[in-house]
Amino acid sequence: MTDLNKRRLMQAAGLATLASAAALVGCGKKEAPAPTAAAPAAASAPAPKPEPLKVAFVYVGPVGDAGWTFAHDQGRKAVEAEFGDKVKTTYVEKVPEGADAERVFRDLAAQGNKLIFATSFGFMEPMLKVAAEFPDVKFEHCTGYKTAPNMSVYDARFYHDAYVSGVIAGGMTKTNTLGFVASFPIPEVLRNINAFTLGAQSVNPKVKTKVVWVSTWYDPPKESDAAQTLINQGADVLLQNTDSTAVLLAAEKNNKFAFGWDSDMSAVAPKAHLASNVVYWGPYYIKTVKAVMDGTWKGGERTIWGKPEGANDVIKFNGALPEAVRKKAEEALAGLKAGSLNPFTGPIVDSTGKERLPKGTGADQAWKDKVDFYVKGVEGKVPSGK
To answer: What are the φ/ψ torsions at residue 348 (nearest 5 degrees)?
Structure first.
């Protein structure tokens, strides 16, 4: 074979090899990239913790260590103990009734409080006004009678305690003259004066009650002066519808008897202290906060609890009480708890001799709401207006 033929044969073989390689490339599959490993699933984030319910309390007096405002603050603390970090409570003390109260209610609502308790009768009108401005806030007013779609009222039957204290006073008085230091001439206070007197008369028909009005809920010097005036007029057992311990202290100073009011005051003046009239606000506050939390709270309602519901009680009887007096008081407490005793059962005659409730008739709430008189045995005239 000539060199020329050899070269041609080699060229042809080379071309054939290239063509074969090209064919293989055209027909083959491209190598797929290695699969990327799946990213690990992110751990599920915990659900955000619900914001605590902000609850505010407005007090007419200082919290102190006894009395009306102290009792309400004990109720606030009961809410904290019950709900823990599900609630955030706050309070404003020593708020005057009137324009100042309106400002405080408005500020608390603007700060995000969704439930606001007002703990004095004179807060009623200011709270009504502010409630209309904040329809998404729940308002609760203590001892009032006016409501709104987002405002309810609550009260306790203080006259239950006053009646039992009257039973004790009627058995302990030596002068047959009782004294009462009163705040304002509103039905709530007049019910207590009358129940105190009726309770005393149930064991001692000779009893009469003298009253001194101080036109304030909390003013220890005024309360003390009023107590001294009553003692100077012959009263030897005193009760009050004011918020401090001044009356009890004045009684001890004069070797007379008196009662604790709204909270346990047995340690304040142990010799003078016959018993304490107490109100437990915690159960109502807990019930109300729970209702707001679970969406069952309703406005426009009025709730009044007493001895049957465990809201009122008379405690810490003085050890010097004669057995007969103690027994009468315990019987009255049992009757109130069972609902068989209504302190306002006719015949009830006022201090002018006019019949206010017929014999055998038990007063209903509408009657109690309109009490504007003294019962027979209470001296003087009821002042007009608050």
So the answer is: -120, 125
